[in-house]
Amino acid sequence: MNNDRLAISLDYLKFTIEADGETLTEELSKTFTDILEGDAKADSAVAAYIRKEGLESVDFAGVDEISRYPGTRCIVNYFGIKDRPQLKAIDKHISSIRTAELLLSPPDMPFNFDYLKAVHSQLFGDIYPSAGMIRRSVRNKHSEFCQPEYIESSADTLFSKLRDENYLRNIDDIDDYINALAYYMGEMEALHPFMDGNGRATRFFFHEMSLKAGYEIGWGSADPDHFLEANVAALDGDYQALIDVLEEIIIPLSND
Q: Does residue 229 have a pLDDT over 80?
């Protein structure tokens, strides 16, 4: 990985950690750098973390893998963890390692729904058997997300439109690009196809799609709280806040 791409990737990882309410430690930063430079493997880093935490796989036969454990907010997971803070901590750490792996070697496929599923599966496949699978339950946060029965058809419409627009490539005017990107970010937020981890999966999707379109999202200068708030506003149909945020961080890439 060249120095420019390394710097962009490390900024992305730092933003991801901070968006989860954590602080990037020197140890984790070194792990990221080693993976991005090819000096370490994500599989080994994940295995070492699992050993350190004393985690053991459990048999979840007979349990609906696309569900939560009864009486908890914990998604069915390979370790049988039913304590949400513990599960979230493990989720954040392992998925951040897999994010570094994805940044080094993103999926070699069109930016369609299968791409998004592949990203989600790689980010969370060490933790949840439902990784990459479409949710079957209703999700509500600040607003109601797409109903489960309409996710497939809505995704088909959304990704077909994105394909027809050539994944936003060849848009030379930066304002036009920002407006289009804000629209798709808002629509993807509303789609919310997975049980959890939607933000991390879609963020990576748009990060890579933007690079291919000739634009860098300057995560190093982005405020995680403002970015997340703007995404929520876009979910309600107000794209201006997200446009304002993107205007501060979208950078055209040099053709050199």
A: yes
- SS3 string, the chain, reads CCHHHHHHHHHHHHHHHHHCCCCCCHHHHHHHHHHHCCCCCHHHHHHHHHHHCCCCCCCCCCCCCCCECCCCCCECCCCCCCCHHHHHHHHHHHHHHHHHHHHHCCCCCCCCHHHHHHHHHHHHCCCCCCCCCCCCCCCECCCECCCHHHHHHHHHHHHHHHHHCHHHCCCCCHHHHHHHHHHHHHHHHHHCCCCCCHHHHHHHHHHHHHHHHCEEECHHHCCHHHHHHHHHHHHCCCCHHHHHHHHHHEEECCCC
CA–CA dist 112, 175 (Å, integer): 24
54, two tokens: 């004393």
Number of residues written out for the chain: 256
What CA–CA distances, in Å, run from 196 to 60, 92, 253?
19, 12, 32
Residue 5 CA to residue 68 CA, distance in Å, equals: 38
Q: What residues does each domain of the chain span?
A: 3-252
Mean pLDDT over the full length of the chain: 94
Asked if pLDDT for residue 143 goes beyond 90, the answer is no
Q: For 152-204, what is each residue's pLDDT tens digit?
A: 999 999 999 999 999 999 899 999 999 999 999 999 999 999 999 999 999 99
Residue 54: how many other CB atoms lie within 10 Å: 7
Domain spanning 3-252, CATH architecture = Orthogonal Bundle (1.10)
